[in-house]
From TrEMBL:
Taxonomy of the source species: Bacteria, Bacillati, Actinomycetota, Actinomycetes, Streptosporangiales
Signal sequence, start to end: 1-24
Keyword Signal on entry: yes
PROSITE patterns linked to this entry: PROKAR_LIPOPROTEIN
Disordered as annotated region, ranges: 25-53, 135-162
Protein's UniProt name: Secreted protein/lipoprotein
Keywords: Signal
Amino acid sequence: MAFGHRGATLAGGALVMAALQSCAALEGSESSPSPTPSPTPSDTGSSVEEAGLEAYENMWDVVIEASHNGEADPSDLDRYASGDALALMRQTLQGAGDDGVTVVGEPALDPHVTEVSPASDPDTVVILDCVDDSRWVEQGQSSPTESEAPDEDRPRKVDATVSHDGLAWRVSQLRIWEQGTC
């Protein structure tokens, strides 16, 4: 599942996003990143932006697939996330797994790079996303209709910091806001 810049559909469920949001301020969690290298972009800003966006989208691909499979700790997640972002995603998937929740459908991502660290140090990219998770639902549930849950289908803001650690680009910080913030 590649999500590119075309606003592709992502699945995941309001339950998973709500859990992510409630855990978004997770602090103090540290995890060692996997030594799996990713391509190092050239010094051009667009290559740095593309590498950051690719790591962000790949992280979501892994999380979405894990939510479909009820997998609490997908082995590839640490290839694309580290630190607080990795801890947040693992905690959320674990919580859904503990509750026996399997998710179907996909959320729609619309990530944009808002900041790249200065050209002398291109190792951090800041991403702003507007995630529509209205079609990422718990198996057996239908997407909410406007009359059932008027705020449930409103996109939410996601702030992400993607860093290059010398080996790979990984999402290191992630903040998921409440619905209606985009």
